[in-house]
Specification:
Elements (H helix, E strand, L loop, with lengths): L3 H11 L20 H18 L4 H42 L2 E3 L7 H6 L15 E3 H6 L5 H29 L8 H8 L10 H16 L7 H16 L3 H4 L2 H20 L2 H12 L5 H21 L23 H31 L6 H16 L3 H4 L2 H9 L33 H24 L9 H25 L4 H4 L11 H17 L3 H11 L5 H18 L4 H8 L17 H4 L12 E2 L3 E2 H10 L4 E5 L7 E6 H14 L8 E3 L15 E2 L4 E2 L4 E3 L4 H11 L3 E6 L2 E7 H11 L11
Parallel strand pairs: 3-5, 7-8, 10-11
Antiparallel strand pairs: 1-2, 4-7, 5-6, 6-9, 11-12
Helix pairs in contact: 3-8, 3-9, 3-11, 3-13, 6-8, 6-15, 7-24, 8-9, 9-11, 11-12, 11-13, 12-13, 12-22, 14-18, 14-19, 14-21, 14-23, 14-24, 15-18, 17-19, 18-19, 19-21, 21-22, 21-23, 22-23, 26-27
Length: 760
């Protein structure tokens, strides 16, 4: 036996692991973080800083800097997200107009900016000014006629194809993660999953550039969802500058939750809606501290965007409206009908889009992403150009559909037959019979609605940045405006009907078609995303229509009820399941009467559980076990006979610890004993130095008994964010349940394919 002096001497040598070494506590790509461990590590760090702060002034200043670092990160996120959103808005305006013409006085001006600066613009022809020329005027000096129309049509398609091709090429070559909306992956990342590179600097740069290109190309997609991804990339970049966040994945996710709020804040000009969106829709863990910081980040982002003033109306909101008529109780019926339409459209869209995306993943179609984008862009441009409502940008279309018809409106939707004897104030125009322009607009809107419904199904999910908020709102706004005009004309021609008699007298301004468009937009967006509270707040912040909260609430709740009747999943959850991400949705209920023993591994007939013993395995034994298995960690037991549980060791940390020990500690060889106890085991003389790995052992792994109901186990995984849970009986190890096992069991119970869950 070695004597005590030698043992103590080697003990000092062996305890080098009490000093942290690089990469311990980090996670591998496509793995889930351990929330409990991250929380515990942050508590230890905070305790250490607090105790040191009493030692000197410098340490006290460092503790203050640590406390303020969170607010500094929020300030930086808000400033960068607001700036990027403003630049994207300005670039999209210019490039969208570039498809139709160019400003001669300054080519970087959009159509609107070009005619603002002109002294020769009249009010009636405010869209026409000599400085702005269509391509046909510039190239062949013709503004009217068939040849001019064909040339403009051809160049519109060419520009659209050019923008789309450039976007898909940039995504494919430089940042494959920059495609799609980004919200399904952000939700998964915030639930504790690691996707390296998804929030990287290249992704941020390429997503910002390609977002401008794809929105300008006229495809049926929006920039709002991808702006959440862009803001989260900003959050990830700034959190990597502070060790408090860069070294703790749990704390990093608090920053990303706040960044998501800033993203919605700048996407819609809705700071409060952004905070609620982050809370209701994307965040998994949202402590009160994160709520305040999200509020601050959303405020800074909104302030920055307002300073840039990309909409040129000195307002933060995208679709500001001013209605001069209150809504009436009888109108709740059409509002609820729009809610039903929104729920049905949401269900149709989710089912068709998921079926198409699954086909893309499982057939040869997925091998040609560039060709797919080019074909869809060509079809969109060819069909969109002849219809004025699909030719313009979707944001402009929604803005026109939301607008009330004032005396100064030149839109076709406001072509009513005026009473020559009318002497009312400008703001209070009574309901009037529809003129030919309104009827033309109605059938054009009907065609545009069908086109938007179909093309959006195929556009969302392609290998380019693509948001869903604006196309969904456009579908609802078109349907709503048509319903609104219908109700308005019904009230005008049949004001003696019992439903109109009490509130709609002849010559009164009763019905506001723009309000119906607003309600329809909220209903369709709610049907697709299943948002409720944040949706209503975003809608009234977006439009400034505060007194119309009740119609918006009625439509949002109805659309959610109708859509939920066909399936509980929103579009983002459906895409998470399609990609096989390990996402435990808080909204899902587990009601089956199964037990932990039914789900744990090993099952009957399977090989016994791979375990480590506390003091009887050599370095070679541990390395062989790691090489032969692909488990994320191993339970540590007293011995293979007793199987009494001691703790749990992570695979990655075992590998790093052994690698570091071989490099930094003399005497560690393949037949050195590995021990996880406080005191070294008794060894025969001349045996190599043992290796102490107690520091990397989790001494309090979460355990349940084999008779714990799975309903409780699912709740534990959901609320504590566990990676795995050990199953014991009277302290003896029986098996292990991982997050993947839980998700596969839930899929099996719901008659879905359990193999669709691909990651742990």
């Amino acid at each position: 036996m070695v004597n005590a002096g030698e043992m103590n001497g080697s003990g000092n040598l062996m305890d080098f692991l009490d000093e942290p070494f690089p990469d311990v506590g980090t996670y591998e790509d496509f793995h889930t973080i351990d929330w409990l461990r991250e929380k515990s590590r942050d508590t230890d760090r905070h305790r250490k800083i607090t105790s040191k702060s009493k030692e000197s002034i410098w340490e006290f200043i460092k503790s203050l800097l640590d406390a303020w670092s969170g607010w500094v990160v929020m300030l930086l996120i808000g400033l960068l997200a607001g700036t990027l959103a403003g630049v994207i808005d300005l670039a999209v305006d210019w490039m969208t107009d570039l498809k139709e013409g160019v400003c001669l006085s300054a080519f970087w001006y959009s159509h609107e900016q070009c005619c603002w600066t002109s002294n020769e613009t009249t009010f009636d022809d405010r869209d026409k000014c000599p400085q702005w020329q269509k391509w046909s005027e510039l190239l062949v000096n013709q503004s009217e006629g068939a040849s001019a129309y064909i040339l403009n049509y051809f160049l519109y398609i060419m520009w659209a194809l050019c923008f789309a091709f450039l976007a898909v090429s940039l995504v494919r070559v430089f940042a494959p993660y920059a495609c799609g909306s980004g919200i399904p992956e952000i939700k998964t990342i915030l639930s504790g999953f690691i996707i390296r590179g998804y929030l990287g600097k290249w992704t941020l740069l390429i997503k910002t550039v390609t977002l401008v290109l794809v929105v300008s190309s006229g495809l049926s997609l929006g920039k709002e969802g991808p702006l959440v991804h862009v803001a989260c990339c900003c959050g990830n970049f700034f959190s990597s500058l502070f060790s408090k966040y860069s070294k703790n994945e749990g704390k990093r996710r608090e920053v990303l939750s706040a960044a998501a709020a800033a993203g919605v804040s700048v996407a819609f000009g809705a700071p409060i809606g952004g905070v609620l969106f982050s809370l209701e829709e994307v965040s998994y863990y949202f402590p009160l501290k994160t709520l305040w910081r999200s509020f601050f980040a959303a405020l800074v982002a909104a302030f920055t965007l307002r300073s840039i003033n990309p909409f040129g109306n000195s307002r933060l909101v995208l679709f500001y409206v001013e209605y001069h008529t209150p809504w009436y109780m009888a109108e709740l019926f059409p509002f609820i009908l729009l809610g039903v339409f929104g729920g049905l459209w949401g269900t149709l869209f989710i089912r068709c889009n998921i079926a198409w995306c699954r086909r893309r993943k499982t057939t040869r179609l997925g091998k040609y992403p560039v060709l797919e984008v080019i074909v869809i862009t060509a079809i969109t441009a060819i069909i969109a150009y002849p219809n004025p409502y699909t030719r313009r940008s979707t944001s402009e279309l929604i803005s026109e559909l939301f607008n009330d018809c004032g005396a100064l409106e030149s839109s076709q939707l406001c072509d009513y037959i005026n009473d020559p004897n009318m002497t009312r104030p400008v703001d209070d125009i009574p309901d009037r019979p529809a003129g030919p322009g309104v009827y033309t607009a109605m059938w054009q809107l009907a065609l545009a609605l069908v086109f938007k419904i179909v093309i959006t199904i195929f556009t969302f999910g392609m290998k380019i940045p693509s948001g869903l908020f604006i196309p969904s709102m456009a579908v609802g706004a078109m349907a709503g405006r048509m319903v609104g005009i219908g109700v308005e004309q019904l009230a005008y021609h049949h004001h003696d009907w019992i439903i109109f008699r009490n509130w709609c007298r002849p010559g009164a301004d009763c019905v506001t078609p723009g309000l119906y468009a607003m309600v329809g937009a909220a209903a369709c967006l709610g049907g697709v995303t299943r948002m409720t509270v944040s949706l209503v707040v975003i809608m009234f912040e977006l439009t400034g229509g505060l007194e119309y909260i009740v119609p918006l609430m009625a439509a949002a709740v109805t659309s959610k009820w109708v859509a939920d009747a066909f399936g509980k999943e929103g579009i983002y959850e459906a895409h998470i399941h399609l990609n096989g991400y390990p996402f435990l949705d808080v909204k899902d209920e587990f009601t089956h009467r199964t037990l932990a023993t039914d789900v744990m591994r090993p099952r009957r007939g399977e090989a016994p559980l791979s375990v480590l013993t506390q003091d009887s395995m050599t370095v070679e034994d541990v390395e062989t076990l790691i090489k032969e298995t692909d488990y994320n960690g191993f339970p540590v037991v007293v011995s293979k006979d007793s199987e009494r549980l001691i703790g749990f060791a992570q695979r990655r940390e075992l590998i790093l610890a052994i690698k570091n020990a071989r490099q930094r500690q003399d005497g560690v060889v393949s037949n050195s004993i590995v021990y996880f106890t406080e005191d070294p085991p008794e060894l025969p003389p001349n045996s190599p130095h043992p290796l102490k790995l107690r520091r990397i052992l989790n001494l309090s792994p979460f355990t349940v008994t084999d008779h714990t109901p799975m309903e409780t186990v699912v709740d534990i995984f959901r609320k504590l964010g566990l990676r795995q849970c050990l199953v014991t009986r009277s302290g003896r190890l029986l098996g292990i349940i991982t997050k993947k096992d839980v998700l596969r069991h839930m899929a099996q119970m719901a008659n879905q394919d359990p193999e669709s869950i691909m990651f742990n």
